[in-house]
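Priority: medium. Attachment 1 of 2:
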């Protein structure tokens, strides 16, 4: 098996590998306090973990004329908080150790490149991923996966994520796609997935089966 056709496993970062909800709450609240805006209810902050930060402007009802201020404040808070706040789901490191023996691992995320890369470094996963592809203006997650498939031409590939956008992005590229039901999505989002997994250990078993 050459490097050119080695299997690839694509992962979302937040809610699939990283238990980043505490970080999301901390950075959003820090940005809102800095801007002097009313603090949004918890359910709106929860809804921000998955979409891009640009999309969270509307989720949080940030005045559009202050969107750039919010994005700057949130990114600064995010980068400052990562070392003390970002966590992995228990057991995910062991699962990735197993999977990377059989496939190249890649992250495709709606987060900023520097956020995902720094988070991976701070959690000790910096060397685990062949590529980290983050959000780019005008490019969807499905398109990012398609570009990576065209570049690497894997013998087999699969996708794992916790939100509907992850699942639809994998399926749009004809990939078997696992819904990480231990993450931040909802049952109605997971129904489209090829498989629904309740634990990180089950995720490892399913992905290994698909690329075997």
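Attachment 2 of 2:
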């Amino acid at each position: 098996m050459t490097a050119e056709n080695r299997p690839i496993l694509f992962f979302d970062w937040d809610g699939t590998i990283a238990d980043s909800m505490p970080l999301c709450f901390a950075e959003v609240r820090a940005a809102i306090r800095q801007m002097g805006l009313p603090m949004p209810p918890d359910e709106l902050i929860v809804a921000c973990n998955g979409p891009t930060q640009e999309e969270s402007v509307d989720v949080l009802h940030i005045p559009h004329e202050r969107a750039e201020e919010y994005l700057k404040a949130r990114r600064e808070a995010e980068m400052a908080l990562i070392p003390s706040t970002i966590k992995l789901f228990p057991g995910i490191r062991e699962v990735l150790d197993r999977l990377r023996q059989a496939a190249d691992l890649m992250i495709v995320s709606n987060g900023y490149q520097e956020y995902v890369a720094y988070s991976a470094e701070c959690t000790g996963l910096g060397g685990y991923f062949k590529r980290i592809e983050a959000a780019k203006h005008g490019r969807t997650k499905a398109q990012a996966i398609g570009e990576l498939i065209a570049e690497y031409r894997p013998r087999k590939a699969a996708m794992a994520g916790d939100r509907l956008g992850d699942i639809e992005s994998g399926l749009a590229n004809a990939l078997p796609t696992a819904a990480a039901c231990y993450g931040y999505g909802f049952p109605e989002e997971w129904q489209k997935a090829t498989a629904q997994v309740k634990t990180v250990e089950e995720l490892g078993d399913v992905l290994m089966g698909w690329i075997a």
